Amino acid sequence: MGGKNSTILKEDMEDYIDLSYLNMGEIKMIEKIFYAMADGHKVSLQHRFPASLIKDTFPQIQANPFADRIIEVFSSQNDNHLSFEDLLDMFSVLSENCPDRVKALWIFKIYDFDGDTFLKKSDLINVIRRLTGINTLEFRDLETVANNVLKEADISQSGALSPMDFVHLALKLPEFSSCFTVRL
C-alpha cells in the first residue's frame, strides 16, 4: 500500500507523484479528505462527489469567485462531479509547485466561459465581474476595461485572447502565481 492508512497502491502513488506537482504528503491528505467526504459510506477512489460537497469540504475552493468554473473545468466526466484523480489534477495545478505556464493555461480554461478556446470581451467581462464582486459597474465601464485588456494583450490583434496571448500576459504579472495557489 501507499502508506499508513492509505488505500493507494505503491505503484499508483509513484504515478501520482510523477504525474502531478504534489508530494506524497499532499496526495495522502487529499485521499484522507476524499474518504471523509463519503461520511462513513464505503467508496472507491473512482467515486465522484458533487460540486456542492467539494465546495463545502474545501474552503479554499468555496471562497474562490470561480469555484463553479474550477470544478467544471476539472470534472473529467463533464458532470460537475470530481473523482479522487480530478481532485489531484485540480490541486496539482493550484499547487505552488506548478509551473506558471501550466497554471496559466488552466486558468485560461477557467476564464473561457463559453469554451471556444478564446477569451473574448464577454469572457473578460465575466472575469472582471467575478474578480471585483461589484455588480454596480455600468456595462460600458466593464466594456472599457475589457477593451483595454484586449488592446494591451491581444498580440495577434484578433479581437480575442488566445491561450498563448493569455500565457504571455500572465507571465508578465509578478503576483500571478501566488494569486492562483492553494495550500492544503
Please name the defining characteristics of this protein:
single chain, 11 helices, Recoverin, domain 1, mainly alpha, 184 residues, elongated, 2 domains, two-stranded antiparallel sheet, 2 strands
Q: What does this protein look like?
A:
With 184 residues, this protein is mainly α. Helix content is 58%, strand content 2%. Strands 1-2 form a two-stranded antiparallel sheet. The two termini are 23 Å apart. The mean pLDDT is 94.
How are the SSEs placed, and which strands pair?
Elements: H1 10-19, H2 24-37, E1 49-50, H3 51-57, H4 59-62, H5 67-74, E2 81-82, H6 84-93, H7 100-111, H8 121-132, H9 139-153, H10 163-172, H11 176-179
Antiparallel strand pairs: 1-2
Q: What is the radius of gyration computed over CA atoms, rounded to a whole number of angstroms?
A: 18 Å
Q: What form results from the Cα inertia axes?
A: elongated
Q: CATH homologous superfamily of the largest domain - what is it?
A: EF-hand
* Run of helices and strands: HHEHHHEHHHHHH
> What's the domain count?
2
Number of strands: 2
The percent range for strand residues is under 5%
Structural class: mainly alpha
Order of the strands making up the biggest sheet: 1-2
Provide a brief overview of the structure.
By secondary structure, the protein is an all-alpha fold. It is 58% helix and 2% strand.
